[in-house]
Design a protein that fits this description.
The protein is about 20% helix and about 35% strand. It has helices spanning about 20-25, 30-40, 55-60, 75, 115-125, 195-205; strands spanning about 5-10, 45-50, 65-70, 85, 100-105, 125-135, 150, 155-165, 170-180, 180-190, 205-210, 220-225.
Length: about 230
């Protein structure tokens, strides 16, 4: 397990505390449509942190070519129709570049700042000069007004139970997912980032925000910046 991360519940648990069986049950949500609307039709997408393919499969159905990367072999066993690569994202080094690099699941908020730098460097070195990087951010109130919960139309409840400071601007976040027949928990380290801090982290990796894709700013489209 990655330091500060853990998970409970049935089935395999990944190094960052995610339960494979849980993620195999979760619906894709609006994310595939957000991505599809922001990139050219038929684009080659490098999906970093694909998990079981919740976004991979809808993107394939929309005609995109997807290379799915995840550090969990158990997660990638669920991915169908895409090229898969198993290994830590921050150490990925492919001899090719892509029209689109996708970094979802709030990975940019990694508690370890060096891991975050590694993730963004991976994005920068794999995006084509005329390509883009799509990044999912936490909402402004993600770490506040807790506990809170949401009941999904498909019949499960997700709760953000707590976000406790552990030092250096990092919080230990605990989430619960309750289904009629099972309960999973995940505890992970997350670093809140203001918009200025987020854009500064991108600039450090040679990326700049082209535009925000959603009204709440939780999805951003970034592009390679010319060297100074």
């Amino acid at each position: 397990m990655r330091e500060g991360h853990r998970g409970t519940g049935p089935g395999a648990i990944t190094p960052d505390g995610c339960a494979v069986e849980l993620y195999a049950r979760l619906p894709p949500g609006p994310e595939p449509e957000i991505v599809a609307a922001a990139v050219p039709a038929g684009a080659r997408i490098l999906e970093l942190g694909s998990g079981v393919g919740r976004m991979t499969h809808p993107l394939l159905e929309r005609g995109f070519s997807v290379t799915a990367v995840d550090e969990s072999a158990e997660m990638l066993e669920h991915v169908r129709g895409a090229r898969t690569i198993c290994g830590p994202i921050e150490r990925l080094g492919l001899a090719e570049r892509f029209d689109v690099v996708l970094l979802a699941s709030f990975l940019v908020h990694a508690g370890d700042a060096e891991v975050r730098r590694g993730l963004l460097r991976t994005c920068a070195r794999h995006v084509a000069d005329d390509g883009c990087v799509l990044i999912q951010r936490e909402g402004a109130d993600y770490h506040t007004n807790l506990p809170r919960e949401r009941v999904d139309p498909s019949g499960f409840t997700v709760r953000i139970v707590s976000a406790d400071p552990v030092g250096d601007g990092v919080n230990s976040v605990r989430a619960e997912y309750e289904f009629p027949d099972a309960v999973w928990t995940q505890t992970f380290l997350a670093r809140p980032l203001t918009e200025e801090q987020f854009e500064g982290a991108l600039a450090e990796a040679g990326l700049g925000v082209d535009r925000y894709l959603t009204d709440d700013g939780t999805w951003a489209r970034a592009v390679p910046m010319p060297p100074k």
